[in-house]
Known about the structure:
Layout: H1 4-36, H2 41-78, H3 86-98, H4 103-107, H5 110-126, H6 132-145, E1 160-163, E2 169-171, H7 172-184, E3 206-208, H8 210-221
Antiparallel strand pairs: 1-2, 1-3
Helix pairs in contact: 1-2, 1-5, 2-3, 2-5
Subcellular location: Nucleus
Pathway: Protein modification; protein sumoylation
Organism: Urocynchramus pylzowi
Amino acid sequence: VSFNAIDSALSSLKNCQSYINSGMDVATQVALDLVESFNDEEDVNNMEKVMLEYATMDRELNHYIKAFEETINQVKREKPENLPDLENLAREKFLEMESVNSDSDLQRNEKYMYFKDQLKEMKKQYHGNDTIEQIDEDIAVTRSQMNFICPITQVTMKRPVRNKVCGHIYEEDAILEMIQTQKQKKKKVRCPKMGCSHVDVKGSDLVRDEIFKRLIDSQKKQ
């Protein structure tokens, strides 16, 4: 049995995931812009609703892909004399997965969690005080106290990523290259921040720090 057509369809579905991811990235940026420009809270909440809609689409797409992959693997494994209705088999599996959906699934979506985390940090930066003058002054102090130099490259960061384990920030390309180099030597990566005791930095522990990047960009403009 040739599964080329199905494999091609699955490949197209996986491409759709990249569009969903891009949409979630854009929604996150828009929400942060809204907070930064002191827009109405309702506008920010609307962007959160958009993120949850994207998370729902992502979950549905993942279930659809998984259902088809399981169906194909089942048929390949069992090798029946008469080829069953693959679409119906996949649909049954899909509906079974969808039947146990819950709102908590969406809350655990990685990009939605990142959105909430960055939104919280942004609000802390910009809405921590009562007046705009106080906020500007507070941000100025925060910037002056921050170290925008990457502990690896020793130059100002362009694409900062934060380690979820120890909280330290590095230039994305620099830390990923370090991880890759040490992986080839079958060695673990110690956090390059002086004094940090974390001895096993993994790529999966790194998240883009949009707030920190905005602070760096803002400092450059001054």
